[in-house]
Amino acid sequence: MALGLLRHASELYAKSSLSFHLRFLGHDISLLSALLAIFVASRVLKLLNGLRAVSSLPGYRVPFQPLAPPGALIPTSWWNPGLYAHWKWKDTLYKDFQNENFSVVPFLLGAPSIYTSNIDVMRQVVSGGEQKTSFQKSPAASRVLIKWGQNLVGAWETGMWRKHRRVMGPAFNNKLHEMVWAETLNTYRQMETVEGWHGKDVVEIPVMQKLTTKLALLIIAKCGFGFTVDCSAPPTGPDGSMTVQEALRVLTDSYIVGLMCPDWVRYLPGFGRIREAFKAFSTFMRKEIEARTAEVRNEEQSAEERMDAFTMLVRANEQETGKLRLSEQEVIGNVFILLFAGHETTANTICATLALLALHQDIQNEVVEQIVTVVGYDRDPAYSDYSDLDKVLSAFYEGLRLFPAAHIMIREAAEDTVLHLPNPVGQEGTTPLPIQKGTQVIVDMVGIQYNPRYFDDPETFRPSRWYGESNESEAFSAFSLGPRACIGRKFATTEAVVFLTMLLREWRVEPLLKEGESRRGWRERVLGSPILGLATAVGEAPVRFVRRKQGGA
Ligand code: HEM
Fold first, then answer.
1. Domain ranges of the chain
2. Ligand 1 center to 496 CA (angstroms)
3. C-alpha torsion 364→365→370→375, nearest 10
4. 223 a known binding residue?
5. Distance (Å, rounded) from C-alpha 186 to C-alpha 182?
6. How far apart are CA 63 and CA 81, in angstroms?
7. pLDDT single digits (tens) 501-536
8. How far apart are the first and last CA of the chain?
9. Whether the Cβ atoms of residue 360 and residue 548 lie closer than 8 Å to each other
10. Is the ipTM above a cut-off of 0.95?
């Protein structure tokens, strides 16, 4: 009897516990379903709002904004355009939508955006500078650029930009460009000695990119900052502290950590050298600013003689007062940003140009013919030869067109506004496209440079399309256009023209093929999948230099 009661009691318990669990699970399921329904509804709402923001311009409807994490970290694939879509899909991207503009509306994370490959649309969004416009640089994207201090590149408000441009503008003058010419020439001569080219008829360069990066770093250090980088100097000084050369090298090698990652990353184990480089470089810059300000104030001879951008920036800043004067931190911010804006862009483009010239011997010969006609063999090229060497410049422009170093520019609508989209080729006028505040406009520089509206046969390396075009011509858009266009354009082209002139006069540049590799294979290996980092970079570009005979190829 007692046993029966016990069994009955335990059955009752089991049943009630089961029904309790089932009820609880039922609650859980309905709670989860409710949460899921709310989430789905909120994402559908986000998608609808995003479509409204871009007036339903056809395009991609994807989980994430492609240029911000996590979209930017996930490889480009059919469901995630990511960082590479504008290069990987450049042949079809705009054809698919039969439009030079398309939208990307994310339903999970990120702002809606419009990609454009049209120069008139680019002009509408990038021209904010002197005048107030409805578009500005995206403050979120610019924050990574101002880690060292507010600066010209990062400034997103008109007033802030104007203040920095007033002081930076005078630094980019003819004297600076003459200095760039002279220093690049010297550096080429040193390179001949250091790399052991003297007396050789053939030299193999396994990684051309390394040479051009070294060149651009030396030039920006000398002409941008006014100091000489001795590549063979030891990494530490007599007191054991990191030398400024080493700090510069570490910082340029690890710019991703320096610019892209939050500050605390530098304090993680394993990042000690980067931390030390930040400290060494900041201390050095503070001391330098103090010293150069004193030189300028006391009108010392040394200040008069210095022509580098840093000294000229300090000099221009000394003439400003009140709110227009840059703080010490802002001076550092501007000097430091020159390193990133001016070094990799130029290095990568010179490398791409040489790779293209290596593949196109006929064009290389045409360029060399002009070099020999203008400069001859008996003297070094002079700064006054610059405009006569337009075929050299055109080769560089064409290298930059095919591999635009600044591959995207991001702008944001600061208010509800209207974009005027030019009608397809053959139809006059524009079509208005209302867009909402917060919408991003991504200027796709790859799309622009490969747009058949502007360039026939856009895939072809044809420097002759630029022959006779003036250096300031707006036909060339890869340095951007309008008041916020690249302040370093002449700096970069001066460096490129003199370096290419010196190198090509002396050497025929050819692809360095692997055993059994065809030129087509080399082309694919070197130029087929560039890296779109801070600046577009082709592959390592292995080349062979073959010494030219005077008067012949
Ligand atoms: C091939 C080389 C270069 C290319 C393709 C290039 C391209 C560009 C582009 C497209 C912009 C506009 C960015 C935007 O508005 O979002 C820009 C701005 C800028 N660049 Fe360059 N650049 C090059 C070399 C240089 C050099 C050598 C320097 C300095 C030494 C430099 C300094 C700057 C600065 C300071 C700005 C900001 C200008 C402003 O906002 O007023 N760049 N560059």
1. 53-151+410-443
2. 15
3. 90
4. no
5. 6
6. 10
7. 999 999 999 999 999 999 999 999 999 989 888 789
8. 114
9. no
10. yes
